[in-house]
Specification:
35% strand, 12% helix, Purple Acid Phosphatase, chain A, domain 2
Length: 144
């Protein structure tokens, strides 16, 4: 329901099945998806690794780090973009993050489904006249 109600819906990768890609894009007014490291080759061939969109003059970079492995400092994601975005939306860690670093707002929505002891979360980004903020909301509680 949140995807249908949003002006713009963004998925930060690891969408895994083409039917989910199609459903996401068909359900949204305007949808954007990047591929993740867990996506099969056929999805990686059709979705970009990074994407930049401009909303009301705010440059939003979307990415999903394709490397596997340990946590990384979010500012490493500056390397994914030719120009520094105002906001970087990213996946991969499944850990929610909403933090300003070096003048850029970094947002990881977490994961959109609950799993053992981990809540399902989404990030809600509000942009109004060039000003922006993000909020991460629990959409489904994990098991206690």
């Amino acid at each position: 329901m949140e995807i249908q109600n949003a002006d713009i819906a963004i998925h930060c990768g690891d969408i895994v099945r083409q039917s989910v890609v199609d459903g996401f894009l068909n359900s949204s007014k305007e949808g954007h998806i990047v591929h993740g490291n867990s996506d099969p080759v056929e999805i990686r061939e059709t979705l970009p690794y990074t994407k930049i969109i401009n909303v009301e003059g705010v440059k939003i970079g979307i990415t999903h780090p394709a490397w596997a492995g340990p946590e990384f400092p979010p500012e490493e994601l500056f390397n994914d973009f030719e120009e520094k975005p105002d906001i970087i939306l990213f996946g991969h860690t499944h850990e929610p993050l909403n933090k300003h670093i070096q003048g850029t707002l970094f947002v990881n929505p977490g994961q959109g489904y609950k799993s053992f002891m981990v809540d399902g979360t989404m990030a809600f980004l509000t942009i109004d006249e060039g000003k922006f903020h993000a909020e991460i909301k629990i959409i489904e509680k994990g098991k206690p």
